[in-house]
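Suppose you are handed a protein chain with no further information: no name, no annotation, nothing but its sequence. What can you learn? This example shows the usual starting point.
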Amino acid sequence: MYNYIVKRGKTIKRTVRVSGSKNASLPILAASIINGKTTKLYNLPDIEDVRTTLQILEFLGCKIKKYKEKVIIDSRNLKEKQIPDNLMRKLRSSVILAGAMIARFGEAKFSYPGGCDIGSRPIDLHLKSFQKIGIKIDETTSFIECSCDKIKTSEVHLDFPSVGATENIILASVLGNSEVKIENAAMEPEIVDLAQFLNKMGARVYGAGTNLIKVLGVSKLKEVSYRIMPDRIEAGTFLIAAAMTGGEVTIKDVIPEHIGPLISKLTEVGCTISADKREITIKAPNRLKATDIKTLPYPRISYRLATNFFYNANNIKGNINSYRNYI
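A reasonable first move is to predict its three-dimensional structure. Written in structure tokens, the prediction is:
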């Protein structure tokens, strides 16, 4: 059995800026192929998963231009309907491209995705959900082949609020005349960001951020420019690093309520935290207090505590709707 031994190093005192969210970027990149037009994205993080996804888009036929702060994706000449196996296996999130390709072409062919070594994470929920909305699945070869003449009006109840399955159902359902309801949907902020992006493109996705999402199909989508939300996991990592070292860190370009439960716990262990709509400052004591932590699907991790924290703490400015104001 492997062990991690963590020794406290230097105290961290600095100001940092949060990157764009990886978990929002990947489904939004997949969604960029559905409109068959040009998409401009801002605040994409320069990380390997994003670079791999862009490689897949180029293989499928997209023309991509990269600038310092934006990426332009032209999906007009998309022709390839199979995701290459070598790229598919590099990251798990590549499966999200399946829903987007089904929306664009009515078919998709791909191998089982890779890129995640944290336990067993099969894509059964994705395939089961696809079948419920009228997509045929063929797994008789080494590839998974999906085909669909049209998405049918249906209700999908997820056995677990899977983020990826929720995103794939949304992506596959945005075009057409169907009405698809997703019950027990994932409620993460990244789902909201994907819905905001699609709606700006002309889609009709309602209820994102709740456990019941409705997608009303439309006949076509338009060009769009969109800024990716900040990465809440990166922001939380900076906060924890400051707490561990007894430091003081100011984080810019962050949406505090996305990490409300974490802020609540850090306050509980003795940290002083102040925040407004786009910035958080943490001051950690020399020694932290002990606490208990229990994790559950978002937002149920100490959600009541987090909500009370945002409404009642004197050192918090703004309100629970600042995410919408940010967008």
